[in-house]
């Protein structure tokens, strides 16, 4: 390779020497981990061995204002951005000063907010999962740019790094679809080493990612030899420039060898055979070394680069080995980021205000938010355009705020949920909707792995501000796919908040608090009390609070008090419930005047356990009431906890009542009635408890 050729593609020797030194560092890291595997393989790791050229070529062209979503083999990418070997080894050994997670997550799982570096939000174990949050970042950037909310003249882009095998994941297709549909500034870098774990490309796919992406109209594509630094650098230059200037997605397919183990726990000698020797022919390090020598760099200088890299790794390894471990007492920090909403504010029942139904209170809350916060946007299936939601819960918002802020999505629950992580990382604040609770399951992957873990595993750097609205519950023959209750499943996901308002005033105040909360919040909105049309739910329609009304999450409400006389006589009990249960309890309680206290939880996580416990202890008798099938539910769990904590004050066992333990709500209304609780069933439990 002549110097003229190098100059033609503007690769100067200093850049080539820097890249070569970093390649040697990456190789030496892998070698060091192998030589000290008793220590370094205590926790599972992968390395970039064989992928160094394409990763460095990409990293060295990113700007500090860009965003990156990386994959677990991307340690050369991190070195190219400027991270030091010492910092990577701190994560390898799960040390306290691991800059990404403080010892909480695997090697090569970065999350970084640091001046002078691209922003790297948390992502999970990165087998295609990161494509949706990364695309959400690009979506957020496009939105902020369209609203004039990006600071300065920079044109940030997102790079999403993926292994070729991961592109077979359905969630990657959802990401690609939205990227081309919305013309998003993102580079999908596909590193194809022709292996999964022990499965080859031929076993896993009918086509590679480059061929697959041809089906996404508007996706630009290019192939590069990812083991050749020169070609990789030029390919990434073209791709990054395209995304930055044209503001549309592009996919780079880079063919690379896999020279290391899949992971330290799945060793290459177990399954690679002669394949490893074949891959070694494309080792990027000898190729770049030869390029330097052909360009006139002296052999001695090349050797100095190699020795300097090895010395750096050796010194950093000793430092990392002796670095402190995390303080065990910090294990539970950063489950949630602190919320600014800690007190009830505004007017809950302003003079002269009219009553509102719950669905309108929700609409008005979102309207207030969009009017007040230009970084806010609202999207989901059928919430935009003319319809404004199948329950009219977003009526006219698209016309009022424009299609950039309120819009329909494809039928992509994973994208709807997971994109909010990317939105949050770039400063956009998404309110999204899953059309029915029964349809949330495709989005659970993103909710669990990306949204719920981000704050904790990034050591508090990347809490995810996300409001996910979910119409829920059964009434009047909604059938098996529009009637389900899902709160117990959600409550088994740590790191998210779950809200379940039962009236219009609570809906408005809790929606505002959910939006201002820096953590993921799922708003469960019962369809049966949206309009107060179901007999007994008239109280769900309340005086509408003013636009400044905010109700903190985690505050239960005693919606009905028992008479003190009945309490003193031991003729009282409490019902702990939420959602439709409030109205079943109210109706049933009319048969027992003065004897029934009703606690509306309002928020299921965080749970106002102190109010609940105090109510149970005050009465000594309690019914925990839910619409869910009872077995293994949140209600049973809460009853069990109360039974233990309140045992000395109880006059009867904690009763529970819920739906029958069946897999779905039947369509026929008479069958539905048989399955669900109702005021009659609740009254029977009340009578039994009061007479216990």
UniProtKB/TrEMBL annotation:
It comes from the Bacteria. GO terms for molecular function: branched-chain 2-oxo acid dehydrogenase activity. SMART domains: Transket_pyr. Gene3D superfamilies: 3.40.50.920, 3.40.50.970. It is an enzyme of class 1 (oxidoreductase). One of its GO terms (biological process) is branched-chain amino acid catabolic process. CDD domains: TPP_E1_PDC_ADC_BCADC, TPP_PYR_E1-PDHc-beta_like. Its cofactor is thiamine diphosphate. Keywords: Oxidoreductase, Thiamine pyrophosphate. Pfam families: E1_dh, Transket_pyr, Transketolase_C. E1 component of the 2-oxoglutarate dehydrogenase (OGDH) complex which catalyzes the decarboxylation of 2-oxoglutarate, the first step in the conversion of 2-oxoglutarate to succinyl-CoA and CO(2). This is 3-methyl-2-oxobutanoate dehydrogenase (2-methylpropanoyl-transferring).
């Amino acid at each position: 390779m002549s110097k003229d050729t190098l100059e033609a593609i503007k690769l100067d020797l200093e850049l080539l020497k820097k890249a070569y030194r970093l390649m040697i560092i990456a190789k030496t890291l892998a070698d060091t981990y192998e030589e000290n595997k008793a220590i370094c393989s205590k926790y599972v790791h992968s390395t970039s061995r064989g992928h160094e050229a394409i990763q460095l070529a990409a990293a060295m062209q990113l700007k500090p204002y860009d965003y990156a979503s990386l994959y677990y083999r991307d340690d050369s990418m991190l070195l190219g951005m400027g991270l030091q070997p010492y910092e990577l080894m701190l994560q390898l050994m799960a040390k306290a000063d691991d800059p990404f997670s403080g010892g909480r997550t695997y090697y090569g799982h970065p999350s970084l907010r640091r001046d002078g570096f691209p922003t790297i939000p948390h992502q999970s174990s990165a087998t295609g999962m990161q494509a949706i949050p990364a695309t959400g970042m690009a979506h957020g950037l496009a939105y902020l740019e369209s609203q004039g909310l990006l600071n300065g003249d920079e044109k940030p882009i997102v790079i999403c790094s993926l292994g070729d095998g991961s592109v077979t994941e359905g969630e990657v297709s959802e990401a690609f679809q939205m990227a081309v549909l919305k013309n998003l500034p993102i580079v999908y870098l596909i590193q194809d080493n022709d292996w999964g774990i022990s499965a080859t490309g031929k076993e896993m796919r009918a086509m590679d990612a480059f061929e697959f992406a041809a089906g996404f109209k508007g996706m630009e594509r290019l192939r590069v030899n990812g083991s050749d630094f020169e070609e990789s650098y030029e390919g990434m230059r073209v791709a990054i420039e395209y995304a930055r200037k044209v503001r549309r997605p592009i996919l780079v397919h880079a063919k690379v060898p896999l020279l290391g183990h899949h992971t330290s726990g799945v060793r290459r000698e177990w399954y690679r055979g002669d394949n490893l020797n074949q891959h070694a022919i494309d080792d990027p390090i000898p190729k770049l070394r030869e390029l330097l020598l052909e360009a006139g760099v002296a052999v001695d200088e090349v050797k100095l680069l190699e020795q300097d890299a090895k010395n750096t790794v050796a010194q950093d390894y000793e430092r990392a080995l002796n670095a402190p471990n995390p303080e065990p007492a910090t294990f539970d920090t950063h489950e949630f980021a602190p919320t600014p909403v800690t007190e009830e504010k505004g007017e809950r029942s302003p003079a002269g205000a009219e009553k509102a139904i719950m669905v309108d209170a929700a609409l008005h809350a979102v309207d207030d938010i969009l009017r007040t916060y230009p970084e806010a946007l609202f999207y989901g299936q059928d919430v935009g355009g003319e319809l404004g939601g199948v329950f009219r819960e977003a009526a006219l918002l698209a016309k009022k705020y424009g299609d950039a802020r309120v819009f329909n999505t494809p039928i992509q629950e994973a994208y709807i949920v997971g994109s909010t992580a990317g939105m949050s990382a770039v400063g956009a604040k998404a309110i999204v909707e899953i059309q029915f609770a029964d349809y949330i399951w495709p989005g659970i992957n993103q909710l669990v792995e990306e949204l719920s873990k981000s704050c904790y595993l990034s050591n508090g750097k990347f809490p995810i501000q996300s409001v996910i609205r979910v119409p829920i519950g059964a009434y009047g023959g909604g059938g098996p796919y529009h009637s389900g209750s899902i709160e117990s499943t959600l409550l088994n996901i740590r790191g998210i908040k779950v809200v379940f308002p039962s009236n219009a005033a609570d809906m408005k105040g809790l929606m505002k608090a959910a939006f201002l909360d820096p953590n993921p919040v799922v708003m469960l909105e019962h369809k049966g009390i949206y309009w107060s049309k179901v007999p007994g739910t008239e109280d769900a329609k309340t005086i509408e609070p003013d636009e400044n009304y905010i109700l903190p999450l985690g505050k239960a409400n005693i919606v009905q008090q028992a008479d003190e006389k009945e309490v003193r006589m031991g003729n009282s009990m409490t019902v702990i419930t939420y959602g439709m249960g409030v109205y079943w309890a109210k109706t049933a309680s009319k048969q027992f005047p003065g004897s029934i206290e009703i606690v509306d939880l309002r928020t299921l996580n965080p749970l106002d356990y102190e109010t609940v416990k105090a109510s149970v202890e005050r009465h000594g008798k309690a019914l925990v009431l839910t619409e869910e099938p009872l077995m293994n539910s949140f209600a049973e769990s809460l009853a069990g906890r109360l039974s233990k904590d309140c045992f000395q004050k109880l006059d009867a066992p904690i009763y529970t009542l819920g739906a029958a333990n069946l897999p779905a709500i039947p369509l026929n209304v008479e069958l539905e009635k048989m399955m669900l609780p109702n005021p009659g069933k609740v009254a029977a439990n009340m009578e039994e408890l009061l007479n216990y």
